[in-house]
Amino acid sequence: MTQKFDVVVIGGGPGGYVAAIKAAQLGLKTACIEKYQSKDGKVALGGTCLNVGCIPSKALLDSSFKFHEAQEGFKIHGIEVKGVSMDVPAMVSRKDGIVKNLTGGVSALFKANGVTLVEGHGKLLANKQVEVTGLDGAVKVLEAENVIIASGSRPIEIPPAPLTEDIIVDSTGALDFQSVPKKLGVIGAGVIGLELGSVWARLGAEVTVLEAQEKFLPTADEQIAKEALKILTKQGLKIRLGARVTGSEVKRKQVTVSFTDAEGEQKQVFDKLIVAVGRRPVTTDLLAADSGVDMDERGFIFVDDHCATSVPGVYAVGDVVRGPMLAHKASEEGVMVAERIAGHKAQINYDLIPGVIYTHPEIAWVGKTEQALKAEGVEINVGTFPFAASGRAMAANDTAGLVKVIADAKTDRVLGVHVIGPAAAELVQQGVIGMEFGTSAEDLGMMVFSHPTMSEALHEAALAVNGHAIHVANRKKR
Questions:
Q1: Per UniProt, where does FAD bind (predicted)?
Q2: For the whole prediction, is pTM greater than 0.90?
C-alpha cells in the first residue's frame, strides 16, 4: 500500500530537515528521505553542513586557534606555558562527538514534531510520486501533495588532481587527518580552502594555497579582500594567485603538483593535497525523465523567487538551486516553502544574505561591495573603523582588521556592511538587522552601543560615513 503525505522532502540537510520540521509544525503530514550514513553506518540527518561541513570545520578551527593562542598569544597576557602539544586524533574525536550530538538532535526534533524519517535514496517520478530505494535495495513509492527537493551539493573533483584514499582529499577528507602534514597544498582560495588551510597551518603545517584566479576573494569587497590577503599571508599561508593546476603525481606517500603561473611551469611537492575548488549540486538519479522538473546544464534545478519548480506542488531549495551555497540560505528557503505550502505568503530578501569566512580574523559581509556600487554608478559615502583603535580589541589582543559601512550618498541608506576582524560574523549580523529595516548610517550612529565592545567598531564606521566618527580621525571631504 502506497503511503500518502502532504509533504515529502528529499534530503535531510539544513534545507530539507528545517523544511520538514516547519511543515510538520504547520500541521502537514510530512516525510523526509535521507540516505547519508555516518561513520558508524547509521543514517544521519544534517547533510553536509552538520556532518562534513560547517560544524566539523568550525570545531577544528576553534581547536586549532586555541592551540595557536597557547603557543603564540598567551605570553603577551603574562601567561607562561611550556611544552604545549596538539593531540590530533583527540581533536578529531572531539569534532566527531559534536557532529554526533547535533545529528542526533535533529533526529530527536523529527520525533518531537512528528516527521517521518524514510531511510534511502529518493527519486521524483511523474505526478509527485517519490520512489525510495532503501539501504537494503527494497523499493517503495510515496505519494505526495507537495514535494520539496533539498538534495544538496558535493565537492567538485578535477581531472588534474583525482582523489586518492589518503594523499589527495576533498574537504571531507581534510577533516579527518590523524596527524599534521609537514607540507600541505590546497587547491582553491575560496571559503573552504582558506578555512581548512588555516586549521592545519595553525597546527604547524607549511601551507601553500594555489588559486587559479588572479584576484583574491573576487566576490568580497576589494578593500576587505586586500586586507585579508595581507593578514593571512602574515599568518604564514602562502597564497599563489593565477596558479592553474595542470597535473599531480602520487609517489612514496607524497604528491607532486604541476601548475602554471606568471613565472611559467611549476612543480611543488606536498605530503597532503586538499582539493577545494567549489561544490556542485547533487542531482544524480534524482529526477525521472517524466518528472517535469527542469535543470540547467550544470545540474541546478530551475526555480522562481519562491523556490517553485516548473511543476506545480514541487519545490527545490538550498545548494541545488540558484544563489549562494549557504546553510542559512537553504534553511530559510525551507521555511519559506513550508509556509507557502500551508497557504502563507512568506518570502526571502535575497539581497541580505550574509556571507562568512571563519578564518581568524573572520571575514564577513552583507549587501553590495564598493566596486559593485561604483560599477552601477551609485554615488556612495564610505565609513571605516580599524580594530586597532578599539579598546575592546586591544584588551583581547585581537586588533587586526576593520569595519566598513557603505551608504547611498543621497539617501544615507546603508547598502553594505563588510568586516574583517574579531567577531566579524556577529557584527555583520547587526548590519543585516539594520538593513532589513532600511537603516540609514545616521540611524546606526544615533544608537547607543555598550562600551567596551567589538560592536562599537560598527557604530564608529557608521558615524564615519558622514564624517562624524569620534575615536578615529575623519576623512576630509574633498
A1: 58, 122, 319, 325-328
A2: yes
